[in-house]
Amino acid sequence: MTPEALDAADVLAPFRQRFTLPAETIYLDGNSLGALPRDTAARMAEAVRSEWGEGLIRSWNDAGWVDAPGRIGDKIARLIGAGPGEVIACDSTSVNVFKALTGALSLAPERRVILSERGNFPTDVYMMQGIAALGGGQVEARLVEPGALEDAIDQTVAVVLVTQVHYKTGRVRDMAGLTRRAHEAGATIVWDLSHSAGAIPVDLAGAGPDFAVGCGYKYLNGGPGAPAFLYVARRHQNRVMPALSGWFGHADPFAFDDTYRPAEGVGRFLVGTPSVLGLAALEVGVDLFLEADMATVRAKSLSLSGLFIERMAPLCAGHGFRLASPENPAERGSQVSYSHPEGYAIMRALIARGVIGDFRAPDIVRFGFTPLYTSHADVAAAVAVLAEVMETGAWDRPEYRSRAAVT
């Protein structure tokens, strides 16, 4: 089918009108920062003018600010196959990785190893290393090659930290299988869902992991720096004393006790005062996504990425691109990556022409497909622009080689 025919049959097409998308722009970077839902600006204005401006401090109660982390967490839970009271929306992904890893370590005090793969997202690895340093030699941060991860789960491993959809390649890990392997070895497991939530079906209840984390500003469209989320399996919630024992995680924050007593349930993993404005924006994005059927989202994602790979074949043959994502659709998330020695300059040239993807060192150009607002026509047009950039050598200009702070 042609891109136009595929778009005509697309039941998700009406969602595109629910987002603010700049004219003459093809946005293929929603896997890094989601587009702006049209309702977000009005919701933010309401939160600022009415709730903050008029309600003032009363809005913690009257506007439901104090309940927002749990309320939005329960909504995210529906997107990732978790149950009510198992997800909390709060803090950043990095902070939640710290909470999950330290919580997991406390469940296995006789073990000392945090295990992950080389090439995992840097913040995950850095948090492992930071915890090891904080432990004064009592904790080891161990990295192995991706293909050796499963076999490396031995009796010394306390917790395995793994990303379900790899940020650079889009490779999808077998959540159920790897979780089962960790539990058989007596280890716990933490899953990073930053490139999963809103991109592929996730079944935490079925797979049975111990902890999971994810961010709110990619496929959930919560805005730059949106609050992240933390999943804690119900069976662990009241067994873990949070290492970050902040006042909002206290059993009775407004008793102002000198001694920390953790709240019951996932609420004990809150730390400081919730980011009310960030949560307001995030809730709009999550509510919008809850209107879509995840199976339909996944089917369109695979259709978009399949068309992209098909159209890229001549550029691989003639211009040196190499597919860095899995060829098997079942093993691929909602993004496609290619390696090219001039990847940075090529991406800068594309962005200058209104096709926005991103670059990941050392040589990866990355394209994200967000089915709520990306069309098959977008995909076809993006590859056509890339072909023009390569055939004319337009990428080979000094201004495209100059590195920006954010790539």
Number of helices: 14
Would you list the SSEs in sequence order as H and E? HEEEHHHEHEHEEHEHEEHHHEEHEEEHH
In the sheet with the most strands, the strands line up as 4-10-9-8-7-5-6
Measured as a percent range, the helix fraction is 25-40%
**CATH topology category name of the largest domain:** Aspartate Aminotransferase, domain 2
Q: Report strand %.
A: 5-15%
Q: CATH architecture of the largest domain, please?
A: 3-Layer(aba) Sandwich
CATH C-level category of the largest domain: Alpha Beta
Mean pLDDT: 97
Distance between the termini: 34 Å
Beta-strand segment tally: 15
Catalytic activity: L-kynurenine + H2O = anthranilate + L-alanine + H(+); 3-hydroxy-L-kynurenine + H2O = 3-hydroxyanthranilate + L-alanine + H(+)
Protein name: Kynureninase
GO molecular function: kynureninase activity; pyridoxal phosphate binding
Organism: Tsuneonella aeria
Quick structural gist:
Helix content is 38%, strand content 14%.
